[in-house]
Amino acid sequence: MTAPVVLEETTAESAALTVVRARHPGRWITGAAVAVLLAMAGNALVTNPAWDWPVVGEYLFHPSVLHAVLFTVELTALGIALGFLLGTVLALMRLSRVPLLASVAWGYVWLFRSVPLILQLLFWYNLAALYKQISFGVPFGPAFLSVGTMDLIGPVTAAALGLALHQAAYAAEIVRGGFLSVDPGQLEAAAALGIPRARQILRIQLPQAMRSIVPAAGNEIIGLVKGTSVVYIMALPELFYQVQVIYNRTGRVIAMLLVAAIWYLVLTTVLSVGQYYVERRFGRGLARPGPSARMRRLRRALAVRRAAPRRGGEGGPR
Amino acid sequence: MSGEFMVDVRGVHKSYGPLEVLRGVDLRVRPGEVTVIIGPSGSGKSTLLRGINHLEKIDRGYIAIDGEFVGYRRSGNRLHELKEREILRRRTHIGFVFQNFNLFPHLTVRQNVTEAPISAQRRPRDEVEALAAELLEQVGLSGKADAYPRQLSGGQQQRVAIARALALRPKVVLFDEPTSALDPELVGEVLEVMKALARGGTTMIVVTHEIGFAREVADTVAFMDAGRIVEQGPPPRVLDRPEHDRTRAFLGRVL
């Protein structure tokens, strides 16, 4: 009917039309409400003297606390490095064509995932009570070298070993999952090209498996940073044990727990940032963008601010 | 066995459980010849091709490339299966191009092409990289050496896969439905590269549904159905004057 005419008018006028964005008053109201709640929480943290902020400041960089942080980092590093090394071996055993190897790996994962970590640690701690001597020699035959268990496995070794063996069970499943996530066509192509077996695993499968291993491994590392706190039962001076020692002496419980919490936050933050870069490294050649778009936006925002210090700050609604 | 045939397939049988996929296949390809295998899906074409480079183990019969068994060593009347290392070494004589390309997504185009010659054949890197540049130019992708596979179209990826197969300097190149995963407008560029190879004297076995390609390029067309080669011969004879009803029925459906 009149449609053609209308169409013509619209095209003629369209140059002069401006677009008015829809308003979202609801977003502003919820935003404001959350801001008020945040301010209240912040106020409650800062103004309540029971939080003992001066004491937190006093002990945050106290040498004994710093040593404990270092020890926690060491335990984590050992646990993760040894755990993933053994875990990778277990995963390859599990995927191997030798049935006994696969069963042994399965049995290991079953056992070490089933027994609580704290129990495992106490077993290792008390290993000397079970076996006084550890001998190296012919299986079931004569021994060439015998060492007292106490000398070989002290509390620190027991803790690191306990964490690593426990971690290995989880790492094995993560690594195995990573290998299973690689398209079988990749291995077929590598085999068709005659690429040697070890090279197929290291050059073709592993880098692709890493894409799904890294996020899960990041979880595990962050979990272990905090998980190291269970070794306090062995009276080892890691972060959690150390702050307990201090507050048992000074009675400033809340402040010392805050000190520990702040350090755990710092450690996990550093690890999260590290994970972002590792993931980006293994995401090479893949169209899907890296893990955290928020991280990129943050970096871009910081770069803009550095380039134009006066302008980027406000960040109005978008 | 003599050097007369580059590929010599005799009496090959293969079953998956109760399902017989190959039921006595004979196929001979002379050096420099192009053989195109056509046939309905499930007829055993791909299994045969994968048997030739021992990606599938055959149950009976034998397959030889240039007088050498791929997966076995003969002593007297027995065929001993070889160790994986030796099978991998012999596979480098055979190029294989997959339907889904199977390029390594985390490696650049150049690394995809140079990986196997360096790690499997232990040829010097300089020589292999020069060859890779040459091959990429040959398939029309000289500008893409540093791109990653995902940044390329399907047709470009398949051309990289062809260059990767050729980098081994294989005695024969096997193509397993190389254009079936491609958008129709990209099929032509891949077929052009394959035609150029055929003209250059590469020995090829191609499983495909592209009857036009078979007609133009093949020295021999083999029609497979239900695990057997029903008939084979020069393209005009098999494609235009097929002797068997099954061939006629198949061609009637695809042409």
TrEMBL record, chain A:
Membrane topology: Multi-pass membrane protein
Spans through the membrane: 28-46, 66-93, 100-123, 143-165, 254-278
Keyword set includes Cell membrane: yes
Subcellular location: Cell membrane
Classification via Gene3D superfamilies: MetI-like
Keywords (A to Z) from UniProt: Amino-acid transport, Cell membrane, Membrane, Transmembrane, Transmembrane helix, Transport
Family per similarity comment: Belongs to the binding-protein-dependent transport system permease family.
Identification of the protein by name: Amino acid ABC transporter permease
TrEMBL record, chain B:
Keywords: ATP-binding, Nucleotide-binding, Transport
UniProt cross-references to Pfam families, sorted A to Z: ABC_tran
The keyword Cytoplasm appears for this protein: no
InterPro entries to which the protein is assigned, alphabetical: AAA+_ATPase (IPR003593), ABC_ATPase_HisP-typ (IPR030679), ABC_transporter-like_ATP-bd (IPR003439), ABC_transporter-like_CS (IPR017871), MetN_ABC_transporter-like (IPR050086), P-loop_NTPase (IPR027417)
GO MF annotation list: ATP binding
Gene3D superfamilies cross-referenced by the UniProt entry: P-loop containing nucleotide triphosphate hydrolases
Domain ABC transporter intervals: 7-251
Superkingdom field: Bacteria
Family the UniProt entry places it in: Belongs to the ABC transporter superfamily.
Name this polypeptide is given: Amino acid ABC transporter ATP-binding protein
Protein source organism: Microbispora triticiradicis
Species classification: Bacteria, Bacillati, Actinomycetota, Actinomycetes, Streptosporangiales
